[in-house]
Amino acid sequence: MIMYFLFLAPALLLGLYAQWKVKSAFSEMSKVPARMSGAEAARRMLDNGGLQSVRIEQVQGHLSDHYDPRAKVLRLSSDVYGGRSMAALGVACHEAGHAFQDATGYLPLVVRNAAVPAANFGSGISGVLLMVGYLMSSKALILIGVIFFSAVVFFQLVNLPVEFDASARAKRELVAQGMIAGNEEHYVSKVLGAAALTYVAATLQSVMTLAYYLFMIFGNQRSND
Q1: How many structural domains comprise the chain?
Q2: Which band of pLDDT confidence, cut at 50, 70 and 90, is reported for residue 224?
Q3: Which of 104, 105, 97, 57 is nearest to 188 (CA)?
Q4: Angle ∠(75,53,37) on CA atoms, nearest 5
Q5: Tens-place pLDDT, residues 107-141
Q6: Which of 15, 90, 156, 213 could pair with 188 as two cysteines, CB 3.0-4.6 Å apart?
């Protein structure tokens, strides 16, 4: 157990910091006024890219914003949908960036979407296999559990370029279409940069968890030899 926390402590601390950073940045940038609401900015960005068929809906929850590639719908939380702030513009256009990726067949997004079922299954079954494997001292079950968990790690790794690219598209379109001035880009970057840190923390946590599992398998194997 001590070894587990030694492996995971940096990732867990980074995750806590990232969550605080997102809330802090969003709160701060919500006070910086913008020329339009998040929904209006996303609509302009989508229309300019020929994505008039992508709908925008308002949903409940705080920072529950996401793009649904199956329904072709951009779902924005109330604070983002109607918010006329730099925070709202940044988040809304980031999600619109995912719609652009979907429309153009952006390869990392295609791979990520294809990996979702395996990652969900791997996340659920790996814990069971690892626990049973350790209780039964079965290296075969433990190894199978690690293999399934590797799908989660793969998903997190391929998710990073998807999220970074969506943020880059958002900032580029906001400036290019005159929704923000060039000297206002750093306001949007503050929110999107904080959000990016959460993806990095999640990826680091999954990678270090996998490293711990591998250490337990091969470390114990070397000690027994």
Answers
A1: 1
A2: low
A3: 97
A4: 45
A5: 999 999 999 999 999 988 998 888 888 888 888 88
A6: 90
Residue given tokens 């711990």 in the structure block: 212
Both tokens of 87, joined, read 């925070």
**Residue 20 near residue 194 (C-beta atoms within 8 A):** no
Structure tokens at 139: 């290296």
Residue 25: HSE in the Cβ half-sphere, 13 Å Cα cutoff = 25
CA angle 64, 67, 72 (to 5 degrees): 140
Closest CA to 41 of 148, 169, 200: 169
Record the pTM: 0.89
Q: Which domain holds residue 38?
A: 2-224
Taking residues 82-102, report their average pLDDT.
Answer: 97
Q: What is the pLDDT of residues 138-187, one digit of tens each?
A: 888 888 999 999 999 999 999 999 999 999 999 999 999 999 998 899 99
Token pair listed for 76: 């924005």
Q: Which positions are annotated as active-site residues?
A: 95
Interhelix angle 86-104/2-29, nearest 10 degrees = 110
Structure tokens at 160: 């990073």
